[in-house]
Write a structure and sequence with these properties.
Elements (H helix, E strand, L loop, with lengths): L6 E3 L2 E3 L4 E5 L6 E6 L3 H13 L1 H6 L2 H17 L1 H12 L3 H22 L6 E3 L9 E9 L3 E4 L7 H13 L3 E4 L6 H12 L7 E3 L4 H4 L1 H4 L5 E5 L2 H10 L4 E5 L5 E4 L5 H13 L11 E5 L3 H13 L19 H16 L3 E4 L12 E4 L6 H4 L6 E7 L2 H9 L3 E2 L1 E5 L3 H10 L4 E4 L15 E2 L2 E2 L4 H7 L1 E9 L3
Parallel strand pairs: 7-8, 7-10, 8-9, 10-11, 12-13, 12-18, 13-16, 15-16, 18-19
Antiparallel strand pairs: 1-2, 3-4, 5-6, 6-22, 11-21, 14-15, 17-20
Helix pairs in contact: 3-5, 3-6, 4-5, 5-6, 6-17, 11-12
């Protein structure tokens, strides 16, 4: 029998009549079993979240911080267990899975600190004559019940970026994890309950898409936080009603490498940023713009570096690149590559499936920028190399995208770095690094089709709270 993982409804383990087997994307092995929540469970979770608004709001800052810190410490203590679970359900190489556990622990630790820093400010009102004798204060208050939907690719840390800030702000939360990778989210919720969160403060419900859509439209929730594809996210915004939204959506991250750059550094970082977790990250390197003087040197070095990647079993500590999440994704990216080649693109390495779920690390060149491997989000182990002669034009090429999440610029020229920061239409610019770089306390998010709002505990807490003003008249 597979290990069973009941979902969490208002902090209590529950099963339904619809079991879901979680399968390893690498070899099809059974990883565990959970259940899909239905209409009754959804209603119970939503009602419990509303009922928990008052006790969550009353929870003092020191206690919220203590709960979050306890979870952070538990993740560190159970690092290997959580890492193995991640590698199994997501097909993530174990060394990357363990890093994700460390990041989730940090996310809870930072949120614990931020729970103690929900400060307001004193605002002078005597800037106008009729403000004389008055004092103004601001304070942040919890919004109320939060709805959250998380993706498959970071089943622990992206869940942490929703649960930890909600708790820090004093909000109950109902989370729908990805149905392909729900086990880490359920296990994390169990740690939160064990740490003493009030009853009703958390529910983690695997649901089918139709049932999960009720999180979007139900007016009992004051905020929706969603991480996933751009098409789905913006469609949600249109149906979300009056609730606030945080949308962390897709990208086709660009990197500009000029003729002053440290080529060895850039090669190493692109090899990491484009191919970690088989490129299944919204900030995975996708489009690389290379100055014509260094194009051939960089391309040869990158191909040589990728030839040394160990491809195979995610549970093998030596593995660098494992499977994509399902066979359909391998078929999709293979079709995109063939389309690009048909229009003149060159395959420098890869360009083929190695198995039903593993796609070879692939580098393309000379691809028209309106091809899907350039214009859309590949979410696969693939980068496209493009030559440029003029730095300004390279920046413009990065901007010729509907996405704008993060970008990277490799240069030793400070003026170019500052110009890139001013010009690039993205949420974050990484100088002498790839857009895949993220530390979990950073403000993280995008513009254009890449989203709305920012994550990172401090910034998410601001989104999940309401700023309220108090004005006191002190008549003499």
């Amino acid at each position: 029998m597979p290990r069973e993982h009941p979902f969490l409804l208002a902090g209590e383990p529950r099963r339904s009549g619809l079991a879901v087997d979680v399968i390893s994307p690498y070899d099809g092995a059974l990883v565990g079993r959970t259940w899909l929540a239905g209409a009754d469970e959804f209603e119970a979770a939503a009602d419990a979240a509303v009922a928990a608004e008052a006790p969550m709001r009353a929870l003092p800052a020191w206690r919220r911080s203590e709960i979050l810190l306890t979870v952070s410490q538990a993740l560190r203590a159970r690092r290997d267990e959580f890492g193995t679970r991640l590698a199994g359900e997501a097909g993530k190489p174990i060394k990357d899975a363990l890093v994700e556990v460390d990041r989730a622990s940090m996310t809870f630790h930072v949120a614990a600190e931020e729970a103690r820093r929900l400060f307001g400010e004193v605002i002078p009102l005597d800037l106008a004559p009729h403000g004389t004798g008055r004092l103004a204060l601001t304070r942040r208050f919890p919004l109320g019940a939060v709805a959250a939907i998380s993706p498959f690719n970071f089943p622990l840390n992206l869940v942490a970026h929703k649960l930890a800030p909600a708790i820090a702000a004093g909000n109950p939360i109902v989370l729908k994890p990805a149905t392909k990778t729900p086990l880490s989210a359920i296990a994390l919720a169990e740690l939160i309950v064990e740490a003493g969160l009030p009853a009703g403060g958390i529910s983690v419900l695997p649901m089918d898409r139709a049932m999960g859509d009720r999180l979007v439209t139900d007016s009992r929730f004051k905020l929706l936080t969603f991480t996933g594809s751009s098409a789905v996210g913006w469609a949600m915004k249109a149906r979300a009603g009056k609730k606030k939204l945080i949308l962390e959506l897709g990208g086709n991250a660009g990197v500009v490498i000029d003729d002053t750059a440290d080529v060895d550094l850039a090669v190493g970082r692109v090899a990491m940023g484009g191919f970690a977790y088989a490129g299944q990250s919204c900030i995975s390197v996708q489009r690389v713009f290379l100055h014509e003087r260094i194009f051939d040197t960089f391309a040869s070095a990158l191909v040589a570096r990728l030839a040394r990647l160990e491809v195979g079993d995610p549970l093998d500590p030596a593995t660098d690149l494992g499977p994509m999440i399902e066979p359909g994704e391998v078929a999709r990216i293979d079709a995109w590559v063939r389309e690009a080649v048909a229009r003149g693109g060159r395959v420098l390495t890869g360009g083929k499936a190695l198995s039903e779920t593993v796609y070879a690390p692939t580098v393309l060149a000379d691809v028209p920028e309106d091809e899907r491997v350039c214009a859309d989000e590949v979410f696969a182990p693939l980068v496209v190399l493009t030559r440029f002669a003029d730095f300004t034009e390279a920046l413009a090429a990065v901007n010729r995208s509907t996405f704008g999440l993060q970008a990277g610029v490799f240069t030793r020229d400070l003026e170019r770095a500052l110009r890139a920061f001013e010009v690039l239409e993205v949420g974050g610019v990484m100088v002498n690094d790839v857009p895949t770089f993220r530390i979990d306390h950073m403000p993280y998010g995008g513009v254009k089709d890449s989203g709305l709002g920012r994550e990172g505990p401090r910034y998410t807490i601001e989104e999940m709270t309401e700023l309220k003003l108090l004005v006191i008249n002190r008549p003499t």
